[in-house]
Amino acid sequence: MFFVVFLYFAALLLQIKHKGYNWTNLTLYILMKYTERQFVPLLFAGDINSYSMARAFYEAYGVKSIVYGKLYTGPNCNSKISDYRAVENIEEENVFLETVNKIADEYKGKKVIVIPCGDSYVELVCRLKDKFKSNVITSVIDLVEFEKLTNKESFYTLCKKYNLAYPKTFVYSKDIGDDIQLDFPYPVIVKPSNGVEYWKHPFDTQKKVYRVKNKKALENVINDIYDAGYNDKLIIQDMVPGDDTYMYVLTGYSDRNGKVKLLSLGHVLREEHTPHGLGNHSVIINDVNVKLCEQAKEFLESIKYKGYFNFDIKYDSRDGKYKFFEINARQGRSNYYVTGAGYNLAEYIVKEYVEGKELKYSMVENKILWIVIPVILALIYINPKEYKKEMLSLILKGKMINPVFNIHDMGFIRFLRFFKTHISHFRKMRLE
For 400-428, b where at least 16 C-beta lie within 10 A, e where not — what string? Predict the structure, then answer.
């Protein structure tokens, strides 16, 4: 217990030192202070994504966000910056709509900003937004556009139309059976074309993405998925070579007129490798690639996209191209790498929809180290050495951020939860 207490206060002091806080106003960072605003953030999902957005709202405006999720677990629990409410059936249409409008009635004199932080919630907002009360604000695309973009088959069709590179792909449907003719070699990647529908049919061996070594293994994966009840198409894809350090994430915001106003590229140095978490980022350093960002900007403005967005991209050393894997019609779970670099994501929707201000275009150049695993693990598992040097340099400069470890929101009980989750990464990586 003494060791835990020591770590708690050491961590607090380290953040104080790195942030440049002074001792005379230290109480301001221990005792939470809130500001009355003309809006209330209403977030959906209980994960790092929603907590990062709640943190962004608090840091920019001093407000507490209302957050809904299915289970009372995750980073929003015991938080002072989010009023977390667990409703097991919150993803049912009638419950979701009733919840949004209930909050809207409760805060009639204010704007209620609805931000979905998971794909199922984005779909619900796209489907139900016309039924929301008049004081509800949200910035999402229409349902037809959502389905077109988040369905990987139709997304790759758009990529081809607008000259975005993507991996060689075979679209599989149940009627094809065993007649699978690939024009690229094994091993291959297998993933659902419709992610929202896929996760509605859980099974024991379910994974976010499958790496398949041969045709027999491919057939087994296909059978497992369809036997569970999933009926949409599957994406069988060429495996782009390279470890996690070849991955990139591109996050941003487009205004109501379909003009991109923010682009922030992150170089992923480490991902999770657990079945349900495969592809989730655990270490990111901000990067700059003007050509890649302009390419994405042209695509988004051509389709008149609006709201938050997030691309998963991988560099292919075989042809020197950046291959687009997917787009999320929302900010990603790693979104605090943008806010932490000085471009607060909450400000964009508030400035546009609440304050009626014109947004200026920004491409993020500031660098920070975004990390959700113990630093020692990152230094052990990430190669080559140049990345370790850059990480150490950013740490020494005080430019490291863990979105969940928030000095403003770290009571002792919350720290114990954080510490338990944090050390669990040692076990996870041992099992990889």
Answer: bbbbbbbbbbbeeebbebbeeebeebeee
The answer to whether 250 and 293 have CB atoms below 8 angstroms apart is yes
Residue located via tokens 């994406």: 235
Q: What is the pLDDT of residue 7?
A: 44
Q: Report the candidate in 86, 4, 81, 78 with the shortest Cα–Cα distance to residue 35.
A: 81
Task: List Cα–Cα distances, 118 to 16, 95, 199, in angstroms.
Answer: 32, 16, 12
Angstrom distances, CA of residue 73 to CA of 63, 70, 207, 231: 22, 9, 21, 31
| Secondary structure string (H, E, C) spanning 105-136 | HHCCCCEEEEEECCHHHHHHHHHHHHHCCCCE
Checking if the pLDDT of 80 tops 90, the result is yes
Straight-line distance from the first to the last Cα atom of the chain, in angstroms, rounded to the nearest whole number: 30
CA dist 122 and 103 (Å) reads 18
Q: What is the pLDDT of residues 12-54, one digit of tens each?
A: 444 444 444 444 344 444 567 899 999 999 999 999 999 999 9
Protein fold of 168-238: Dna Ligase; domain 1 (3.30.1490)
Sequence ranges of the domains in the chain: 168-238, 244-404
d(CA 308, CA 40): 18
> What are the pLDDT digits (tens) for 242-267?
999 999 999 999 999 999 999 999 99
Edge-to-edge strands, sheet with 234-238: 169-172, 234-238, 188-192, 210-212
- In contact, 41 and 17? CB cutoff 8 Å: no
- The answer to whether 332 touches 154, Cβ cutoff 8 Å, is no
Query: CATH topology of 168-238 equal to that of 244-404?
Result: no
Q: Identify the band that residue 201 occupies on the pLDDT scale cut at 50, 70 and 90.
A: very high
Contact 349, 401 (CB under 8 A): no
d(CA 2, CA 157): 58
Q: State pTM to two decimals.
A: 0.90
Domain 244-404 maps to which CATH number in 3.20.20.120, 3.30.470.20, 3.40.50.1450, 3.30.450.20? 3.30.470.20
Looking from the CA of 372 toward its CB, the CA atoms found within 13 Å total: 23
At 383-414, the pLDDT tens digits run 888 899 999 999 999 999 999 998 888 888 88
Give exposure, 225-259, as e/b (b: 16+ Cβ within 10 Å): beeeebebbbbbbbbbeeebbbbbbbbbbbbeeee
Share of the chain above pLDDT 70, in %: 90
